[in-house]
């Protein structure tokens, strides 16, 4: 009885945002977008109920001792030994994190309702927010790698759409596209990992490669298998978590409305990668080299972000890099084999940072109040650096920080030749197709934009 | 804020012994930058937002011309769009009669001149604005002709009688046997052929090609690579990031080094080294190295860059202007800080516009050279690039015959002209007809629309004032009031004053600039440092401090200590969470606690705010304070020349105020002086909602200081000697009205003498009720406040708004301002002005020579016109003149806002603030005789310029009657009212209740 209630609650937590997404999206597609008032009421009800469902589920999980409870949503298909099961997993990790997710999303939905009042893209914004909340809940509650992948893509797509929210100006669109490109590239890691896992275990279910229960596992994979899977997962994490060398997109992502920046880049989206690695902890245990790589990338990112962030003079970019610093440290913690500390760190950091981002337009007000409290101009920060470092070094570091280590330029230098190669392959394919179809290469109608 | 210190030697870059360019050329650049600087936005740091005319630089030319020229220079719209005006026309906000009157006035004697023997100029223009007139581009036109049925049907919006006329004529010509549909197609096709014929006969006007001034724009136009060849995309992010760091007032943890040497030095230091980055950055490093080798100052560098880009001295001014305008927000901020370093919130860096320009040009040189080489294969010297690019740009083709006929085709239908009539036209007539149509261009049509739009509003306002003056509302004219309340002239106080007088007919309200003549640097008991509280044009000479009463001094000290502790903790937490080690400890250990404020502040803003206030009471300075207002020669003020005022100075201030607003000699027993301010969260533009007369601060201290001055017995003695008597039975009380949450706070209440306590309590009760009704009236404009809210809940609603982190419209500010009335309150008392009027008290019966009026107008006209015009421009082009939507705004350097992480500084007002505004020029109605008004205008050239260049509309109201005259073409012409009926309503709330939109004027009869 209790288990069935529990299952129903978890399913409802996914079903409600999905239903809202469908309602808002379908209404827009039929050119009959819901009114602001109705959207707002629905969003409040849906996110309120979702939060309630997960809170009750989390409460029930204690007496039920839900250490590793799987919920099946059915099979996508089964073919021989290979099956694609849509499966959720309720355990302390997924329940705590998903509860925080819906609380934060709910708060941001209420905030956005007032913040975006009378904005022409109001409806579009809420569609993206629903897509995101469904995606992040799928990632967190997933019990198989396919479900993770589905959620992962929804998070990425909604993120890019909201960065480009003000699509009448070129900069947001450009930055949204940049972010999408980084996401899509690194998503190959997750896709590759999924394929590999299927190849090894003939199923994507977590038990098959993560062991019986989180966090101990242990993973049944061999060390070699675990290293390959782990490396691919780490690659996926680097993109979504804005780790080196992909960090540049996070600062570019501050183009959307403030609440979306808060929920995506202060709180949830930026932690999705760290969450995935945390979930895959047992795999990392089997692959010390990958764990060491996670430490290296995390530490590098944290150092990069803390330096760059200190030189930024606009509040949203400064907060973006502050966020990144902590995500880097969380990655280090995961790489070191810790489990509960990174979880608590993630929860705490997501809460603090989203509040700070939501308050960022009030900065002037807060600053003046602080001056009143302190009774003068605020003291200078960062003076200890002057004692520690010689001026020449400081100048170099500052210039590098202001230029954000030129990471994006570096990426472009890698990408440009890669794009050239891809374009050449594309041309080749067109010619090949044309030859097969018996047409001249230049007269081809199937030519797409390169 | 931390500054990385560098050795204090002059950087190589500013080696003044280097190559000096000729003095003549240097002077050319200096003059060009000076010229360009006038066009830059004049908005200073956002913490002190002062409304000003966005096109201030163009005040020397008439408004209608200025908006067009300014719009061209800045790439902005001059008027609302035609589409928007058509919507106003169809909903009756503009009437056909308005269009007719405006066109007739505009054309003057030529209105009835025939055009090609078919119609008159007036009729032609009328037709072009009455029906939707489109000027499609060539591709759109081709699509319309091929894919729609414009060549089969007469236009659908044709009035039925015109349509019938067409059909009847065709029927009589072609016979009755055709079906109506075939008939119609026949008419239309013949008409189209005839229009094409006319276009063929008339010679095509030759349009010369013009090329952009900036080399970067030219490159973008020429390069097929499109956005890839955009130098701005390379240069601007680089420059913006450094400019933000250079001007930063405390956001960055780690400050820019060696700011004292200026922006150009910082630019060379930071970008002078390049290690195998992108090619253009290497090129930039090379340019910087070369510049540093050649020495000289910023002007020399600018000259070298201009030469390198092939700019000849005669083009310095336009090119420099175009370059600076392309990044005008930041350039303007450099200029503002350079000219008014005292307005910078923390510490002014040595910002110089010339440095900024030199850095900009260096970067562009490098970027352009690389882009031209990479995308166009241009290998030559950069100075030859312009000449090389121009031949590659194809000039736009001349308009096709179809395009030239399209306008005529629409007009002919609207005027009922048949194809046959057009076929008879000869060459000259054809040219005249097409010429007449093309001379009434889109901008011209919008100008006519705009004039009509303003005319409707003006006619309604003037008619209402005339009717109200002719038949005043009952209850007006009772000479003695038991208390008077002086408010700021602000349009937002109009409703509060009206409600107060409705609730308490024994009260008279007065309007005076909200600093009440007290220009001072003020430091409150909690303030860290003094701030100026006076109009921005004045630099105060006096400093006033608020002191805690002696009995509470010890408590003040402990609370200040507590406050400091709390402040340091909060600051420590905020900064700490952004760092590496402290950040991880803080976020991991205490992070989850942030969920509590996050949820409570967003879901229950009002409750959270009241809890917070209750908590903060423990560390607040004690409320028992007084102003140290009297002169203290022994104290050296932090700012200004004197600490406190002498009695003579106080008497001067009180006398001036009482004289200007006509209160002298008719004071009531109790006079409230009510300043105003506004408090809201999540609002970088918060200062724009504060009192403009207090330089974007709260006017409470000024009101308090004025009351204290006027209550001072020694001051009263001095005043009596000058003939301005304050009766001994009169008491002044200062107060502060918060226009956002409608709270009213009184000062020095404990000093009110026993004799006045009862009266004060009565006045206070009236204001309590009035502020609830004020909130009620404001709420009708907020969609998120239901229309059924009773006044008390409306008050709760506005309180919640002011404390809401998510609220981007805490209040609507001056949106909807349209009118200013200078005159006795009796002229406007009981008139519902819908919070659209600045009300300035003035008594013309005691000012025969206009001396008082002259001083009054000199002070209030620039303020009101500044507000009105800033709202005009920010509404007409929200993205160009305004700062666009607030939603992506990002506070940078504590000085301004950007869109997202890297954009030009966005100046002007955000859309959320101006959304409801009707962009009309301020209609100023002054109660004065014609001779007095003429004299005042003659004596004040800047006022005359504003009026006669039509930046404001001026009308005068006869002090002895109800006659109005309107200023037209430099003289006053008698105004004849159009509508002799003024609506009446028993009370304001009965008039506005249940309605959201702008409301017409009404007389409040007070019968309810």
Task: Give a quick precis of the structure.
The complex is a heterodimer of chains A (450) and B (1008). Chain A has 450 residues and is mainly alpha-helical.
How does the SSE layout of this entry go?
The complex is a heterodimer of chains A (450) and B (1008).
Chain A (H helix, E strand, L loop, with lengths): L1 H28 L6 H29 L4 E11 L2 E9 L1 H24 L6 H20 L3 H19 L6 H32 L4 H5 L12 H18 L7 H5 L5 H10 L1 H11 L1 H6 L1 H24 L3 H21 L4 H20 L3 H12 L8 H6 L2 H12 L4 H31 L13
Antiparallel strand pairs in A: 1-2
Chain B lengths: L1 E2 L19 H17 L23 H12 L7 H9 L5 H12 L6 E2 L3 E2 H10 L7 H10 L12 H15 L5 H22 L13 H8 L8 H17 L6 E2 L7 H9 L7 H16 L3 H11 L7 H10 L2 H12 L13 H24 L8 H5 L11 H15 L3 H5 L3 H13 L2 H29 L12 E5 L5 H11 L3 E5 L8 E4 L7 E3 L8 E7 L4 H24 L4 H10 L4 H9 L1 H12 L8 E4 L13 E2 L3 H14 L9 E8 L22 H12 L1 H9 L9 E8 L5 E3 L7 H26 L11 H12 L16 E5 L7 E2 L4 E5 L9 H26 L12 E4 L3 E4 L11 H4 L8 E5 L2 H10 L1 H8 L4 E5 L6 E5 L2 E4 L9 E2 L2 H5 L9 E3 L4
Parallel strand pairs in B: 1-4, 5-6, 5-12, 7-9, 9-11, 12-13, 15-17, 15-20, 20-21, 24-25
Antiparallel strand pairs in B: 2-3, 7-8, 9-10, 13-14, 16-25, 18-19, 21-22, 22-23
Helix pairs in contact in B: 1-13, 1-14, 4-5, 4-21, 5-18, 7-8, 8-18, 10-16, 11-16, 12-16, 13-16, 18-20, 22-30, 25-26, 27-29, 30-31
């Amino acid at each position: 009885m209790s288990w069935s209630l529990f299952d129903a609650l978890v399913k409802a937590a996914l079903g409600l945002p999905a239903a809202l997404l469908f309602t808002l999206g379908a209404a827009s597609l039929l050119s009959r977008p819901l009114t602001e008032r109705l959207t707002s009421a629905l969003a409040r009800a849906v996110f309120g109920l979702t939060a309630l469902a997960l809170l009750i589920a989390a409460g029930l999980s204690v007496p039920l001792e839900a250490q590793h409870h799987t919920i099946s949503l059915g099979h996508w298909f089964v073919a021989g030994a290979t099956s694609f099961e849509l499966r959720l997993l309720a355990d302390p990790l997924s329940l705590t994190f998903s509860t925080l997710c819906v609380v934060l999303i709910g708060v941001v939905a209420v905030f956005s309702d007032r913040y975006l009042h009378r904005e022409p893209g109001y409806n579009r914004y809420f569609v993206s927010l629903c897509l995101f909340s469904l995606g992040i809940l799928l990632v967190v509650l997933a019990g198989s790698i396919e479900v993770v992948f589905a959620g992962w893509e929804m998070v990425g797509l909604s993120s890019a759409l909201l960065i480009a929210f003000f699509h009448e100006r070129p900069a947001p669109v450009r930055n949204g596209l940049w972010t999408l490109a980084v996401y899509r590239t690194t998503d190959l890691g997750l896709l590759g990992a999924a394929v590999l896992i299927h190849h090894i275990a003939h199923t994507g279910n977590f038990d098959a490669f993560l062991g019986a229960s989180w966090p101990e596992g242990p993973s049944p994979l061999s060390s070699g298998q675990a290293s390959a899977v782990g490396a691919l997962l780490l690659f996926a994490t680097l993109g979504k978590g804005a780790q080196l060398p992909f960090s540049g997109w996070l600062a570019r992502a501050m183009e959307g409305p403030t609440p979306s920046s808060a929920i995506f880049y202060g709180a949830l989206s930026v932690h999705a990668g760290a969450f995935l690695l945390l979930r895959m902890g047992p795999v990392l245990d089997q692959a010390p080299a990958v764990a060491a790589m996670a430490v290296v990338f995390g530490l590098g990112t944290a150092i990069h972000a803390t330096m760059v962030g200190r030189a930024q003079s606009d509040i949203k970019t400064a907060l973006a890099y502050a966020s990144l610093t902590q995500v880097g440290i969380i990655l280090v913690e995961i790489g070191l084999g810790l489990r509960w500390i990174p979880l608590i760190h993630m929860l705490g950091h997501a809460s603090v940072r989203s509040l700070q981002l939501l308050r960022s337009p009030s900065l002037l007000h807060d600053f003046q109040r602080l001056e009143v409290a302190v009774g003068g101009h605020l003291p200078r920060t960062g003076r200890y650096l002057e004692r520690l470092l010689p001026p020449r070094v400081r100048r170099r570091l500052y210039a590098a920080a202001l230029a954000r280590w030129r990471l994006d330029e570096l990426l472009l230098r890698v990408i440009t030749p890669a794009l050239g190669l891809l374009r050449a392959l594309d041309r080749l394919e067109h010619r090949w197709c044309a030859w097969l179809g018996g047409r001249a290469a230049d007269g081809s109608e199937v030519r797409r934009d390169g | 804020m931390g500054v990385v210190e560098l050795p204090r030697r002059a950087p190589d870059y500013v080696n003044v012994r280097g190559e000096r360019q000729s003095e003549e050329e240097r002077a050319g650049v200096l003059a060009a930058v000076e010229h360009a600087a006038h066009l830059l936005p004049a908005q200073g740091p956002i913490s002190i937002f002062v409304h000003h005319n966005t096109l201030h630089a163009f005040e020397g030319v008439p408004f209608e011309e200025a908006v067009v020229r300014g719009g061209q220079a800045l790439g902005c719209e001059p008027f609302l769009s035609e589409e928007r005006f058509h919507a106003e026309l169809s909903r009756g906000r503009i009437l056909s009669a308005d269009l007719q009157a405006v066109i007739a006035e505009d054309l003057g004697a030529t209105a009835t001149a025939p055009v090609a023997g078919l119609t008159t100029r007036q009729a032609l223009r009328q037709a072009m604005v009455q029906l939707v007139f489109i000027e499609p581009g060539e591709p759109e036109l081709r699509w319309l002709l091929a894919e729609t049925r414009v060549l089969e049907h007469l236009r659908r919006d044709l009035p039925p009688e015109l349509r019938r006329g067409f059909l009847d004529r065709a029927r009589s010509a072609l016979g009755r046997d055709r079906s109506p549909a075939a008939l119609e197609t026949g008419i239309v096709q013949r008409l189209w052929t005839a229009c094409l014929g006319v276009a063929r006969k008339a010679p095509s006007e030759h349009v010369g090609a013009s090329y952009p001034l900036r080399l970067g724009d030219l490159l973008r136009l020429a390069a097929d690579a499109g956005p890839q060849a955009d130098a701005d995309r390379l240069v601007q992010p680089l420059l913006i990031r450094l400019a933000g760091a250079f001007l930063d007032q405390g956001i960055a943890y780690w400050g820019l080094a060696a700011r004292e040497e200026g922006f150009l030095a910082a630019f060379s230091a930071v970008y002078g080294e390049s290690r195998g980055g992108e090619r253009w950055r290497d090129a930039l490093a090379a340019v910087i190295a070369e510049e540093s080798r050649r020495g000289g100052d910023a002007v020399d560098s600018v000259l070298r860059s201009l030469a390198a880009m092939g700019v000849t001295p005669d083009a310095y001014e336009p090119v420099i202007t175009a370059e600076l305008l392309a990044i005008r927000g930041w350039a303007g901020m450099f200029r503002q800080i350079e000219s008014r370093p005292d307005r910078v919130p923390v510490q002014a860096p040595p910002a110089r516009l010339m440095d900024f320009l030199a850095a900009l040009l260096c970067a562009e040189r490098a970027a352009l050279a690389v882009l031209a080489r990479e995308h166009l294969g241009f290998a030559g010297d950069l100075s030859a690039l312009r000449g090389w690019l121009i031949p590659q740009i194809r000039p736009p083709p001349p308009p096709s015959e179809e395009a030239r006929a399209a306008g005529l085709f629409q007009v002919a239908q609207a005027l009922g002209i048949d194809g046959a009539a057009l076929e008879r036209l000869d060459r000259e007539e054809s040219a005249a007809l097409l010429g007449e149509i093309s001379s009434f261009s889109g901008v011209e049509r919008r100008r006519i629309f705009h004039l009509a739009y303003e005319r409707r509003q003006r006619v309604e306002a003037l008619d209402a004032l005339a009717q109200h003056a002719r038949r005043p509302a009952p209850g007006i004219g009772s000479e003695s009031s038991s208390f008077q309340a002086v408010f700021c002239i602000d349009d937002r106080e109009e409703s509060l004053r009206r409600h107060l007088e409705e609730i308490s007919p024994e009260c008279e309200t007065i309007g005076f600039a909200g600093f009440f003549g007290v220009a001072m640097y003020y430091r409150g008991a909690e303030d860290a440092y003094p701030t100026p509280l006076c109009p921005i044009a004045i630099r105060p000479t006096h400093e006033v401090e608020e002191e805690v009463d002696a009995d509470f001094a010890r408590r003040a000290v402990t609370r200040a200590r507590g406050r400091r502790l709390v402040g340091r903790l909060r600051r420590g937490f905020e900064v700490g969470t952004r760092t590496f080690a402290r950040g991880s400890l803080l976020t991991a250990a205490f992070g989850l606690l942030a969920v509590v404020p996050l949820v409570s502040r967003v879901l229950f803003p009002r409750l959270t705010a009241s809890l917070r206030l209750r908590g903060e009471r423990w560390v607040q300075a004690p409320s028992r304070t007084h102003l140290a207002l009297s002169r203290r020669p022994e104290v050296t003020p932090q700012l200004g020349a004197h600490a406190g005022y002498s009695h003579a100075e106080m008497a001067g201030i009180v006398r001036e105020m009482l004289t200007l607003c006509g209160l002298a000699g008719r004071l009531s027993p109790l006079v409230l002086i009510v300043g105003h301010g506004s408090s809201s969260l999540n609002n970088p533009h918060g200062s724009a909602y504060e009192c403009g007369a207090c330089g974007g601060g709260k006017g409470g201290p000024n009101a308090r200081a004025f009351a204290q001055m006027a209550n001072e017995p020694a001051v009263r003695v001095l005043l009596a000697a000058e003939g301005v008597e304050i009766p001994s039975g009169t008491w002044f009380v200062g107060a502060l009205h918060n226009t956002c949450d409608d709270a009213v706070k009184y000062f020095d209440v404990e000093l009110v003498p026993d004799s006045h306590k009862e009266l004060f309590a009565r006045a206070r009760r009236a204001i309590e009720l009035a502020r609830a009704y004020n909130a009620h009236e404001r709420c009708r404009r907020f969609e998120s406040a239901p229309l059924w809210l009773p006044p008390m809940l409306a008050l709760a609603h506005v309180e919640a708004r002011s404390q809401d982190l998510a609220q981007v419209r805490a209040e609507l500010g001056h949106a909807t301002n349209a009118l200013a009335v200078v005159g006795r309150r009796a002229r406007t008392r009981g008139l519902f002005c819908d919070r659209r009027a600045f009300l300035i008290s003035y008594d013309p019966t005691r000012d025969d020579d206009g001396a008082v009026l002259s001083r009054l107008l000199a002070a209030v006209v620039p303020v009101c016109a500044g507000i009105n015009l800033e709202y005009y421009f920010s509404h007409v082009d929200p993205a160009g003149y305004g700062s666009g939507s607030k939603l992506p705004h990002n506070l940078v350097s504590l000085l301004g806002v950007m869109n997202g992480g890297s954009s030009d500084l966005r100046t002007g007002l955000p859309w959320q603030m101006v959304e409801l505004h009707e962009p009309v020029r301020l209609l100023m109605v002054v109660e004065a005789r014609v001779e007095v008004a003429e004299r005042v205008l003659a004596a004040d050239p800047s006022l005359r310029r504003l009026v006669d260049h039509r930046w404001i509309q001026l009308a005068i109201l006869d002090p002895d009657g109800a006659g109005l005259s309107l200023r037209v073409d430099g003289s006053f012409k008698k105004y004849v009212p159009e509508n002799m009926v003024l609506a009446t309503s028993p009370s304001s709330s009965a008039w506005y209740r249940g309605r959201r939109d702008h409301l017409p004027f009404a007389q409040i009869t007070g019968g309810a």
